[in-house]
Each structure stands twice: as structure tokens, then as C-alpha cells.
């Protein structure tokens, strides 16, 4: 278990808290593995009835640690994000998210698999995959257009356009947009209420509301293309530009 992910349990609720505020909670391979292991334990432990995803600091998560992605593009360790994504897609119990600020890439797409989402009014949600010469993941290429429409989703994926927490609530990506200091208390209150509900009925309702097989199949298709893109010349240029703190030049690729 890494100290960069804080995991606690109380009154039927497991909290998984990103704890890397100095890096805007960028998710490293170790953090993904810790969260994936916690979700696996929550599936099996009947005393855990709800999972709450939250974070320390002003950011929910700035997304994948680009250093890990850059290493993977050069033949290093494969990103551990895929295991976490599959775990959250298949998680049968309710998931509540508390988003106090920045949510980039997987920080936004994982919210599509949460059952209740509370977000700060001034949070910024972005999915700038194409900026890194990559493609959407976590079945977001299917789920995001279904939730907010093709045009707005394409602008988020391809142009890197962001939306605020207030807009996320208006569009149906979040249950409520609140002042930042009210986000975690609201999420905890909702998680506590869910933990008191008949869990068999809650889980059955969640399953009925999601085509789990279709979502997982879409995610795996995305993952295969994502892996190809990660090794592409365009991705190499994007990560080189990131390391060198310059704008990428895709004009000759």
C-alpha cells in the first residue's frame, strides 16, 4: 500500500483518497495498483457497502503521471491505469466521488463510473487525450457522448476544452456543484445514506442501469488503440515536448 493513496473504512464506507497534492494528485502506477487492490477487497468484504473516491488538496487528480506514460512509450513498465479502469467499471457496489478541483483525463472519465458525484463549483474537468496523441479511455468515447452529446464531447476529447463543476452538474456529469469546502461533507453524507440502504437492492438497481458487458468491451477496444497510440511517433513527440517544456510539433508526422 502506498502512502500516496490513503484508504480507510468506517460504518460500511471505504474511502480511497488520492494523497499527492504537491503533484496535483497525478496518478502513478503505484497509486493505481493500491486503489485497484482496495476495490478488489471492497468487492469481497461484505462489511464494505460503499466506496468514496476523494482527494487531498485542491485537485481531484491531474490524471496519469506523464512520466509513467513517457517511460511506457519508450518500452518501460506498462501503465497500471487499465487495471484500475476495469476494476471501477466492474465494481458492483455504489461509488461516490468528491471532486474539489481539477480533474484531468482519467480524473474526469472515472466519474462516468461513479453513481453519485459531488463537485466544486469552480472545478475544471478536462479530457485532453488528443493533445497527447492518445485516445479516450474508460469507455468514455461511448459514455461521454451519451451523457453530454457528441459535439461537446468531441471538443473535450480533441480540443481539450474543459467544463466547470457548475457546468458538469447542469450537463448531468455530477449530482451537485457546491462550494469547495462543502464537497467532501456532501459526498460523505450521501455515502453514509447509501450504506444504510438494502445493499442487494442497490446493487441490483446499479446493474440494471448499466450495460456492463458493452461498457467493458468498449473500454478494452479503447485500451488496445490507446496502447498503439502510446507507441506512436505522435505520442513520442508529445512526451518529448512535455519533457522539454515546449509546444509539440505534429506537422511533419
Largest sheet: 6 strands, mixed
What percentage of residues falls in helices of 4 or more residues?
40-55%
Structure summary, number of beta strands? 9
Unreliable spans are none
Overview of the structural elements:
With 253 residues, this protein is an alpha/beta fold. The protein has a domain at 5-180: Alpha-Beta Complex (2-enoyl-CoA Hydratase, Chain A, domain 1). Helices cover 48% and strands 15% of the residues. It has eleven helices and nine strands. The chain has helices spanning 29-44, 66-73, 81-90, 106-109, 140-148, 150-159, 165-171, 180-195, 199-209, 212-230, 233-244; strands at 5-10, 13-18, 50-55, 95-99, 103-104, 116-120, 124-126, 163-164, 176-178. It has a six-stranded mixed β-sheet, with helices on both faces. The protein has a three-stranded mixed β-sheet with strand order 5-7-8. Helix 1 links the parallel strand 2 and strand 3 (50-55). Helix 5 packs across helix 10 (212-230). The longest helix is centred in the C-terminal third of the chain and has 19 residues, at 212-230. The chain is globular, with a radius of gyration of 17 Å. The N and C termini lie far apart (41 Å). The model has no long low-confidence stretch (mean pLDDT 94).
